[in-house]
Amino acid sequence: MRLDFSQPLVGFTGEPLVEGDTPWFLKTVAVNALTAVYQNEPLTGVQKVERVELAQRIWIAKVPIELTVEELALIKKLVSDLYLSPVLVAAAWKLLDPR
């Protein structure tokens, strides 16, 4: 699946979600989720490197990038694990899995 990570996250009203004056973008949410440390999830060195490499692909992308089903599922899981706000998670998931 090709995905454009430069998209802003939007709330119920269609307005961009912001923290202070800074809008949330799918790129930031995905990279934060991929590079965070999770207490109940010990990772091997290989898993850590794979997550960082995926985060780098997302961060530097200027155009939509191709993701595997597994990569997409991982990002969705980690976004949900990292962020407490249901509105933010729902906004990110809507862009990650546009049906």
List keywords for this structure.
mainly alpha; two-stranded antiparallel sheet; 4 helices; 4 strands; 8% strand; globular
Structure notes:
The chain is mainly α and about 100 residues long. The protein has one domain (about 1-95). Helices cover about 50% and strands about 10% of the residues. It is built from four helices and four strands, in the order βββααβαα. It has helices at about 25-35, 45-60, 70-80, 85-95; strands at about 1-5, 20, 20-25, 65. The strands form two sheets. Strands 1-4 form a two-stranded antiparallel ribbon. Strands 2-3 form a two-stranded antiparallel sheet. Strand 2 and strand 3 form a beta hairpin. Helix 1 (about 25-35) packs antiparallel against helix 2, helix 1 (about 25-35) crosses helix 3 and helix 3 packs antiparallel against helix 4.
Concise summary:
This protein is mainly alpha-helical. It has helices spanning 26-35, 45-60, 69-82, 86-96, and strands spanning 2-3, 18-19, 22-23, 65-66. β2 and β3 form a beta hairpin.
Structural class estimated from helices and strands: mainly alpha
Low-confidence stretches: none
Shape: globular
Rounded to an integer, what's the Rg over CA atoms?
A: 13 Å
Please tally the helical runs, counting DSSP H or I stretches of 4 or more residues: 4
Tally of structural domains:
1
* Proportion of strand residues: 5-15%
Taken in chain order, the helices and strands follow as: EEEHHEHH
**What share of the residues lie within helices?**
40-55%
* Strand segment tally: 4
Quote the average pLDDT.
Answer: 96
